[in-house]
Design brief:
- The longest helix is centred in the last third of the chain and has 36 residues.
- β4 and β5 form a beta hairpin.
- The chain is α+β, with helices and mostly antiparallel strands.
- The strands form four sheets. It has a four-stranded mixed beta sheet.
- Helix content is about 30%, strand content about 15%.
């Protein structure tokens, strides 16, 4: 089948949330209500068990492509966020039941009947993608419209995007398109334009990668996410080190106590007969 992916060009996103609506409609997900905060036009707020696509709004006190502030200058950064379908997926690595698997399209899919609700995947995901369904008691996230892919259809979110901010296709072709877009933007003065997750520097590569014009953290993305297994050697070292130091401490305390008892015995006066 070949690896399929998403290329999300944040400079083309207009914040219309058509992708969110299309995702909910196709997957029959409940709405999130209209509880707007005082900080954003975003009513969903973040990805969740019933929000598999989320358009974030980031207001900056600088114009697009610039790094300096100025009176009255600002810009909106908008990004349609989704599961990254990582090449080295932390969620897949920690799943104890095999409920999280890789499909023939190289996407990461949760097989709901096999999920036992342990939440290991929720803790492992560095992007905050996976959430537990309160109603079903299982982990949920973007399926990459697996049912549509099997029938040769474009995922609902990409199909609905009016500006082609979300592009779907073979991952190799998307990377070429994305590189050309970065070159174009830099030629237009947007010098901060860069790709996030297009190469193997982020968890071996992301099958849903992004074009950004600011640091990843500004968009709520970690700059250097890690696999859980990468922390095991370091954690094991410190665990062993702590155990050794504890053992030495106990031994030292025991020797001090023993030495004190022996000194006390020696210092007692001997009995003298009449």
């Amino acid at each position: 089948m070949g690896t399929k992916g998403f290329f999300t060009d944040t400079t083309l996103c207009i914040g219309c949330k058509a992708c969110e609506v299309a995702c909910k409609q196709w997957n029959q997900l409940p709405d999130d209500g209209f509880h707007f905060t005082g900080w954003s036009y975003d009513n969903t707020g973040h990805l969740g068990s019933s929000t598999w696509r989320h358009v974030g709004f980031v207001e900056r006190p600088v114009p697009l492509g610039m790094q300096t502030t100025g009176a009255g200058s600002f810009s909106w950064l908008m990004m349609s966020d989704v599961c990254k379908h990582c090449v080295n997926a932390p969620c897949l690595e920690v799943c104890p039941t095999g409920a999280i698997l890789r499909t023939e399209f190289d996407t990461v899919y949760i097989n709901a009947p096999a999920c036992n609700g342990c939440r290991d995947c929720v803790s492992a995901c560095p992007f905050g993608v996976i959430h537990m369904s309160e109603d079903r008691g299982i982990a949920q996230k973007c399926t990459f419209c697996y049912d549509r892919l099997k029938n040769g259809l474009t995922p609902a979110c990409a199909q609905a995007c009016p500006t082609e901010s979300i592009r779907f296709g073979p991952i190799d072709q998307l990377r070429k398109t994305a590189a050309a877009r970065v070159t174009q933007l830099r030629g237009q003065g947007v010098t901060q334009a860069h790709l996030y997750g297009a190469d193997d520097s982020v968890l071996g590569g992301l099958n849903a990668f992004y074009l950004l014009v600011d640091k990843p953290e500004v968009y709520g993305l970690p700059s250097n996410p890690k696999l859980p297994s990468r922390n095991v050697p370091r954690s094991a070292f410190w665990s062993v080190f702590a155990a050794i130091m504890t053992g030495l401490g106990v031994l030292f305390a025991f020797r001090q106590r023993t030495s004190g008892q022996e000194s006390g015995v020696r210092s007692q006066p001997s009995e003298v007969g009449p």
